[in-house]
Write a structure and sequence with these properties.
single chain; alpha/beta; 8-stranded parallel β-barrel; two-stranded antiparallel ribbon; 11 helices
């Protein structure tokens, strides 16, 4: 399998056109299987995936140590992006965000150690309302100068904050939820990204599993708790949308997951979808999504899931 590549932003690095999101390998989406996760990371490398997404708060650092093990001996084949800033207490509860310069530098230090690497390719910070974005980005710029970070990214910011961040130091990429079920980025954020030449790594491409029929329940699965679209008032309506998309996908010779991934791939060469595959089988299914499809096929997919058709907010925070 030959996976195509894309530039991460107008002047950014070249990475695989699809990235592997590793979060679910550690927590949030139900039971985990370390052996299967390591096999999936190895298969991703073998199949040409270079972009690997993790966060220092995924599994309280477990996700970074898992990725380090999976990349052992092959670190130079990978482009690692790490999210930081989220705070959690020992029972796993989220406590907010802290993006003070000293805190961010400390978090980076621990991530480098857990990932067993001397640099992080793309370090992404979440906005902290109590800290000027200029202070946070300024601290990251220092880390770029010292070689600990190669590129700076931000997550889930609005257009105005993105402009301020980019004015402080060039932002290579924005991470944002984007897919058939979540298209609010198109209104203001995506145009600003394109104006400034900022790339996008898109998570939630499968609606956190809604598109593939997940109910978000079961031991260790927090989706039905954290995401309104998985809750009873909305789940049934969203499952009906998934069924419509599945019909269209079959008519085009694709699985429902492939249709959703292909749609995101088709929205622009500056968008790189992240797939949260946790098994080799799911990874290979995702990577087999067509990079290009006909205008009619694209219209049929979008017709099954029109903009704004999802029931419920995409997040409760």
């Amino acid at each position: 399998m030959t996976l195509l590549t894309r530039s991460l932003g107008a002047n950014g690095p070249v990475v695989s056109a699809i990235g592997l999101g590793c979060m679910g390998m550690s927590e949030f989406y139900g039971s985990t299987d370390r052996k299967a996760s390591l096999a999936t990371i190895a298969a991703a490398l073998d199949d040409g995936v270079t972009l690997f997404d993790t966060g220092d708060f995924y599994g309280m650092g477990d996700n970074e140590t898992l990725l380090a093990e999976g990349l052992s001996g092959r670190r130079d084949q990978a482009f690692i992006q790490v999210k930081c800033g989220a705070l959690r207490d020992p029972d796993g509860s989220f406590l907010g965000v802290d993006a003070r310069p000293a805190v961010i530098k400390t978090a980076l230090s621990y991530s480098l150690k857990r990932l067993r690497t001397d640099r992080i390719d793309l370090y992404m910070v979440a906005p902290d309302p109590s800290v000027p974005i200029e202070d946070t980005i300024g601290a990251l710029a220092e880390m770029v100068q010292k070689g600990y970070i190669r590129h700076i990214g931000v997550t889930n910011v609005d257009a105005a904050l993105l402009r301020r961040a980019h004015a402080t130091h060039p932002v290579t990429a924005l991470q944002y939820e984007y897919g058939l079920l979540s298209r609010d980025m198109e209104d203001e954020v995506l145009p600003i990204c394109r104006l400034l030449g900022i790339g996008i790594t898109a998570y939630g491409v499968l609606g956190r599993g809604l598109i593939t029929g997940s109910s978000g329940t079961g031991e260790g699965d927090v989706r039905a708790t954290f995401y309104p679209r998985f809750q009873s008032a909305h789940l049934h309506e969203n499952q009906k949308i998934s069924e419509k998309l599945a019909e269209v996908a079959r008519s085009q010779g694709m699985t429902v997951a492939q249709a959703a991934i292909t749609w995101v791939l088709s929205q622009g060469d500056d968008i790189i979808p992240l797939v949260g595959a946790r098994t080799v089988q799911r990874l290979r299914e995702a990577l087999a999504a067509p990079m290009q499809i006909s205008t009619d096929a694209l219209a049929a997919i979008e017709g099954a899931v029109p903009k704004g058709s999802a029931s419920g907010d995409r997040s409760n925070h």
